[in-house]
Amino acid sequence: MKKISPIINIIIPTIAFWICYRLFGLLPAMIISVLISLVAVLQAYTKKKQVSNTQIIGLVGLILSSTSIVFSGNEKLYYIPALISNIVLLCFMVVLTIKRKSVFLYLAKDFQIKSLQHILEQDVLSLNYLWMCFFFLKCISKIAGLIYLDFEKMYWVVFFLGDPAMLIVVGISVIHIKRNVINVE
């Protein structure tokens, strides 16, 4: 359950948001999604006295998105904090790459996978380029979506380039590690 919990913490607020959005509108959907994320953060803290990076990033993103819509009245601004977050993460990944640190190992530490604790940074540095390309694609798709798409189409683009695409990139990373790092040892 440890390995699945961070994924659930990302997907449940997304699904709850969409259902509430379709039934009640944007503002109730944002409130429900923020509350679900807040409950997940509080639950993680009471159980483990620790909150994962993914939970904090998700909750802060939801709060910023909600705030931008409430003050502007423009529902497309819901995606601006996520765009800013993706740009910041992309820059952070560039910094990690320059410092010769692994993006994948940094992101994977929330999942507490024992087999990854024995992998050396330099053995998985090539994955940094995959992760940077992925976040670059997320940034470009949000910019294009803000210009050309309505809220609902944009939501699905952001969703699919979010959780499902992230799982694919994680899968590619794991396959790379199994083929190139574990076989070498």
Quick summary of this structure?
Helix content is 76%, strand content 0%. It has eight helices and no strands. The two termini are 28 Å apart.
Task: Write up what this structure looks like.
The protein is 76% helix and 0% strand. It has 185 residues and is mostly helical. The two termini are 28 Å apart. The mean pLDDT is 80.
Brief descriptors of the model:
185 residues, mainly alpha
| SSE series | HHHHHHHH
| Rg, Å, rounded | 17 Å
**pLDDT under 50 segments (min length 5)?**
none
Q: Describe the biggest sheet?
A: none
Class per helix and strand makeup: mainly alpha
Helicity range of the residues? Answer: over 70%
Distance between the termini: 28 Å
Helix tally equals 8
What's the layout of helices and strands?
Layout: H1 5-24, H2 26-48, H3 53-72, H4 80-98, H5 103-108, H6 127-148, H7 151-160, H8 163-182
